[in-house]
Specification:
CATH architecture of one domain: 2-Layer Sandwich
Number of strands: 16
Number of helices: 39
Distance between the termini: 57 Å
Helix content: 55-70%
CATH topology of one domain: Alpha-Beta Plaits
Structural class: alpha+beta
Largest sheet: 9 strands, antiparallel
């Protein structure tokens, strides 16, 4: 080894050890003191000293300047952040200098620094900054590390002179809007990004970038002195920034890399580091996220106020006197403004009046920063006396009865902290995330999403989205009672106990306080108490069974309650998660709604099953005549099926089966037929084969391997020993190729069933990170089916399984049923995000004996916990 190479290696080793030891000591001090800002500054100083000494060690020409830019230039280096450098040249580098600089950059990497670097002259910097806002932003934070102070001074003057503060402000504002859109325009995601997400650190940095570019100041204290923010807002900004800074620092250390997302795998550890412990009703991670959401919400609010104030200072609006609205409010450039900043102190009731005026005046498109700030400050005036005031109660109710812009009004009230002050129980669920594996919004945001869905039903422009819902709500009369019910339907979450019952108590008190009529109060309270009834019935019960419809209709009572519950249920599911709703669920709900309405409108006694069977058979015959099928095509099949078949299959399905099987009923080869589902989504597959003990297991294994989710299964056995099973499938991979998959399913499944081999387990896959880090304790229950037919009670059993979704889950359940010789009759497969709630109608397997039911439950639980 040459002496030169050996010297270089010694230099690298020395600087690398110095860097590693220094960073280790800095991180250890942080874990002891919890002072994130000290860590950022100490890491900057460590890197500064290391880089300066390294430049000196390699004899970097004094005519150059090495600048820290970006976050490093700002003096904040997070544990895993890049070190951004600009090597400034007085003129274009010659070959020798280029080689020297390349060697220097290699040294930076060799000693363990992740460097983001550029090498430019001042002219090149100006050219790059003119077309790239990111480059321009990084340069306004530049500071000198080593080299020519005069070159850096000239650079600073030229960059500042070229900066157009107004254009910079507008561009950064658009950049923020685009960034917020990438994150769904909400800080309330399950795994929020504490740097880039709405309400994150970047929103705070953007404010200071724009004020620095405009010459208004470089810190919150400067903005307070200039009157852009109040001292309270300054303190809130400082505390929010400190909280976000601390979270991001801990995230980098936990992940051991640059990670700004509050991922599931880090949430519990972060909560523990911050001293947060679980309670009886909330995980520690949920409390952590609630703190984060509330901080992010405050950052968003002050960000909006500040940007509006900065924009007004940079681009003053045209001289135009405000138009009076009343003695408290005025229209200032199409924004609601207060006539003076103490309006709410003088007249606290004007707090709710402000939101009413925004609803009632179409020419108003928002609020001035002054009005927002005054409302933000005045929210603490909402106390028990305020809530008891009859005028305030009337104003709050008018927000709902007026209806227009209701969602906007409530979102703004929530953002400003007014809604949670007026309804303290709503305030408790603000920012509350529940890791139930299917809700993707905090409780308050979910409630507002449900309200938004209901309002869309009532707006003509959206009638094409939900034709039935739009028609029903237009004929409903006083739809505002639905909005009140939506506001309270989940308000009881997080308190322990049944949130529906807790919410109903809150709703009853609200209705009494706000003088709702008796029938309106009854409907609101009933809806809150029963808001889960329709989705559970549609997805877990056999809604083709008249006894199920009769039992459901008895609980509903009348058509107005039915319509109200249907509308709220659709809005509730749609407002839970984009993953939860699909056309299949929509059709199930509509079928249950239609059947129940028909039942309620009938003045006769509930029809007996035999009457239903005759009616369904006649409907099937009509379908077959429409298809020009022979009159007797169905007879042999119908002789072999029992009454349950006609109760559970639709007339259209019965006709389909008859058409397919009329000349192949005695086949020895398994027959598989598939078609596009008549419900407009997914595939419907019929399997007809000699009955076998493991037939269902093998079918389920095939569908799972083909990446299909079974959402409905109807299992029948004919009197001559054939299985006649029908499945509804949804493609879990979104291939959008259902028609192309029909031939594949018919051929491949038929071939596999012909081989009479044991059921193949589907290929294993990975469970989601949410399931992995927030496991759901599985629940298994087997209960006797209570039938209106006395001799049927006790023969059939309802198996309910609640578990975290995972690949092959249904195959596991089917395998256990087969092992216990339990016969499966129907299956309702409900997937709610990452959670499944499946219901099976089973018999046989000595389930009449308690010990056999207990054994099946125990074996299922054991498998589900693996």
């Amino acid at each position: 080894m040459s002496a030169e190479r050996a010297a270089r290696n010694r230099l690298i080793s020395s600087f690398r050890n110095r860097l590693q030891e220094g960073q280790r000591a800095i991180c250890e001090r942080f874990l002891t003191t919890g002072n994130a800002l000290a860590l950022l500054h100490e890491r900057c100083r460590l890197i500064d000293d290391t880089l300066c000494d390294l430049c000196q060690a390699v004899n970097l020409p004094a005519s150059l300047a090495v600048l820290a830019v970006g976050g490093y230039g700002r003096g904040e280096l997070y544990p895993a952040s890049d070190v951004d450098l600009l090597i400034l040249l007085p003129e274009q580098a010659d070959d020798a200098l280029t080689a020297q600089l390349e060697g220097l950059v290699c040294l930076f990497w060799d000693i363990g620094l992740e460097i983001g670097h550029s090498v430019r002259t001042i002219e090149e910097c100006l050219e790059q900054a003119s077309g790239n806002i990111t480059v321009q932003t990084s340069m306004i934070e530049a500071r000198l590390l080593a080299g020519s102070a005069s070159l850096f001074a000239g650079f600073s003057v030229r960059i500042k002179a070229a900066l157009d503060a107004k254009n910079f402000f507008q561009t950064k504002r658009i950049e923020q809007e685009d960034r917020h859109q990438r994150f769904g325009e909400t800080p309330y995601s399950l795994e929020a990004n504490c740097k880039e997400g709405p309400g994150g650190l970047r929103d705070l940095q953007l404010i200071l970038w724009t004020t620095q570019a405009a010459g208004y100041g470089n810190c919150w204290k400067d903005l307070e002195r200039r009157g852009f923010i109040t001292i309270d807002e300054k303190q809130l900004l400082e505390s929010s920034e400190a909280f976000l800074r601390d979270l991001r620092t801990r995230l980098h250390l936990l992940a051991g890399r640059r990670e700004d997302r509050l991922l599931f795998e880090y949430q519990t550890a972060l909560a523990e580091q911050l001293g947060i412990t679980a309670t009886a009703t909330q995980r520690a991670s949920e409390q952590l996220m609630q703190r984060y959401y509330r901080r992010a919400k405050a950052v968003l609010q002050i960000n909006a106020i500040l940007l509006q104030n900065i924009g007004t200072a940079l681009v003053p609006p045209r001289e135009e006197p405000p138009q009076p609205i009343n003695e408290r409010f005025q229209n200032a450039h199409e924004l609601l403004d207060v006539v003076h900043e103490d309006v709410f102190d003088v007249t606290p009731g004007a707090i709710l009046e402000a939101f009413l005026l925004l609803q009632q005046h179409a020419g108003l498109h928002g609020m001035t920063a002054r009005a927002q700030r005054a409302l933000w400050r005045a929210r603490t005036l909402i106390d028990d006396d305020f809530r008891r005031n009859p005028t305030n109660r009337r104003h709050f109710l008018e927000l709902f009865t007026y209806g227009n812009r209701l969602t906007q009004a409530l979102r703004r009230m929530n953002q400003l902290g007014v809604l949670g002050r007026y309804l303290p129980n709503f305030g408790r669920v603000v920012g509350q995330m529940q890791h139930d594996l299917f809700h993707v919004y905090t409780v308050d945001q979910h409630i507002l999403q449900v309200l938004r869905r209901l309002r869309r039903f009532a707006i003509e422009e959206f009638a094409h989205e939900y034709p039935l819902c739009s028609r029903l709500i237009s004929d409903f009369g006083n739809p505002w009672v639905l909005y009140i019910a939506a506001l309270f339907h989940d308000i009881g979450k997080g308190r322990g106990g049944d949130h529906s019952e807790l919410g109903a108590i809150d709703a009853a008190q609200f209705c009494a306080d706000h003088d709702l009529a008796a029938d309106e109060s009854e409907l609101v309270v009933w809806l809150v108490r029963q808001h889960l009834l329709m989705s559970r019935s549609a997805q877990k019960e056999d809604i083709s069974d008249p006894t199920v419809i009769a039992r459901f209709a008895e609980i509903i009572g009348d058509e107005r309650h039915l319509v109200a519950l249907y509308l709220l249920t659709v809005a509730d599911i749609r407002g839970t998660s984009p993953k939860v709703w699909n056309a299949w669920k929509g059709q199930l709900l509509e079928q249950l709604f239609t059947a129940t309405r028909r039942h309620l409108r009938s003045s006769e006694a509930p029809p007996m099953p035999a009457g239903v069977i005759a009616q369904r058979q006649e409907e099937a015959r009509r379908v077959m005549r429409f298809l020009a099928l022979p009159e007797t095509i169905h007879e042999r099949l119908w002789e072999q099926v029992d009454t349950v078949y006609f109760l559970r299959q639709s007339a259209e399905e019965i006709a389909w089966h008859a058409r397919v099987l009329h000349d192949r009923r005695k086949t020895d080869t398994p027959l598989v037929k598939a078609r596009l589902s008549p419900l407009a989504t997914g595939l419907e597959v019929m399997v007809y084969a000699h009955d076998q003990a493991d037939l269902f297991v093998r079918i389920v294994g095939f569908f799972s391997s083909a990446d299909y989710s079974i959402v409905d299964a109807k299992i029948h056995t004919t009197s001559d020993g054939y299985a006649l099973d029908t499945f509804v499938l949804l493609d879990v991979t979104n291939r959008h190729s259902e028609r192309e998959m029909i031939s594949y399913i018919e051929h491949e499944l038929s071939q596999r069933l012909s081989r009479h081999s044991a059921g193949e387990a589907p290929a294993s896959g990975r469970v989601s990170r949410q399931v992995r880090h927030f496991p759901l304790q599985p629940l298994v229950s087997i209960q006797p089916l209570v039938s209106l037919e006395a001799d049927e009670t006790g023969k059939m059993f309802v198996l309910t399984v609640v578990a975290a979704d995972r690949p092959g889950l249904l195959f596991t359940i089917a395998t256990q049923l087969a092992a216990h010789r339990a016969n499966l009759h129907t299956a309702k497969i409900v997937t709610l995000g990452e959670r499944v709630e499946d219901t099976f109608l089973i018999s046989g397997g000595h389930l009449e004996e308690s010990a056999c039911r207990v054994k099946l439950e125990a074996d299922l639980l054991k498998q589900l916990q693996l």
